[in-house]
Amino acid sequence: MDQQAANDPTKNAVEEADALAAVERHHASMLKRLNALTSTLTRAVTAGDTVAEHDAHEVLVEWCETELVPHALAEEGPLYGGARKRPEGALLVDGMLGEHQMIVGLVEELRGSAGVDAAVAAGSIRNIFALHLDKENRLLMPFIVASPELSLARAVEGLHELVGETHIHQHGTGQTGSV
Alpha-carbon distance 172 to 111, whole Å? Predict the structure, then answer.
């Protein structure tokens, strides 16, 4: 899963585009789920429904622990590594790593909070994650795809945390772009 494309000077443009589309779809799916979980928690808090709040809180914390944080950690190696070594990408990646730390801290805050504090933490996670995904989708991934010495397809290969399960199962089956 070496992100460097130096051994293959002719990156496959279709594979790069497919990888970009898969990551963007996975990001959209994650953000949609986070929005729904945050809204459910906020509605329960607003309604004063402590049972629904407890359930929504538990589901959101579990999702953050099993989906959000592993996604962030998976990005830090293969997706960020090559771009961080390039002068043009280093500051962007450093800033995005800082956002990962902020998200992990907010997940810890969410875990230990209840009521309005939990709703605020959930909303903060959602908002920072949305901004973070926008930077990845608009800035980082296009930079990787455009860099001759980097490969997005190689960086995300085999990492369901970055592209979702569907892309992993269809990769290499001749079904390009149909995730």
Answer: 39
